[in-house]
Amino acid sequence: MFQSLMEKIAAIDIGSNAIRLSVAKTEADGDFKLIKKVRVPLRLGSEAFGPSHSFSPDLLNKALQTFIDFKHILESQGVVRCRAIATSACRESINAEELFQVVEAQTGIHIEKISGDTEAKMLLSVLVKKLKFDEKADYLLFDLGGGSLELSQIEHGTIAGSKSFDLGTVRLLNLIQTDHADKVDLVLQQYQKEILGYLDEAVLKSKNLVVVGTGGNFRRLQKLRNHLIKGKNNEVKPYELIYLYERLKKTPVKDLANQYDLSPDRAEVILPALRIMMTVCDKLPVKTFLCPKLGLIEAILHQMIIHPN
User: Fold this and answer.
1) Are residues 157 and 277 in the same domain?
2) How confident is residue 155, by pLDDT bands cut at 50, 70 and 90?
3) 221 and 215 in contact (C-beta within 8 Å)?
4) Which domain holds residue 27?
């Protein structure tokens, strides 16, 4: 049952590349309107996916301060309910619980750690509400984050199969920036083989395969496409994806932010993101990539409205 009384709610997405807070006002029709967004590029995955698989004291302090700042925002905005979700980096870090405990003790914000499968189901719930699925098309939900890739096969608006892969932009960036840069192609090829083995024959031989990309990387991809290729469109064709990669890789990473209006942390991961998209979809009959402005934040808010208690 939808929450009938309009109120302010908030969602926090604790990702591998950044922590995001969105404040929204619920509406009478069961939807919401975003009124404030904050993004802090802490990049928890840089340490969680490293040799120690743990957050350093410095990073823990920065994360705690972020939540203290969020608490002040929640209070100033008059937020009555907040839900915080942690994904890949916190799943892998051996001391994530230490962060959760100190955050709750000092701010009252309780953090939930969810699995990749749960993340995919949450995303699909909001996609079904916001998108119109074509009965004649096959859909592959492609949620690419800093630490993981969740692939879900969608049939008639429900998930027919879902799997999480330890393939994310921050993980790949860690390889590129270390002495293991020569292993990037091998790692991508291994995941490509694993993913092709996982997907059903219907997807592999589809005549109308649509990839629905969610998360910040796909939102930025769509904006880059509209800027460089021109024309407003929420779709990206496979050949456009290749064009964007070839165009962007000619620019030094330090110049990508200014030249293409990217945040510095996004500029660092956009090429790894494109490489993952291209590798995974290279042997798939993808007709188009849909890039809706939807991600885990929107899915959290959607669930908070459907299940207010």
Assistant:
1) yes
2) confident
3) no
4) 8-116+296-306
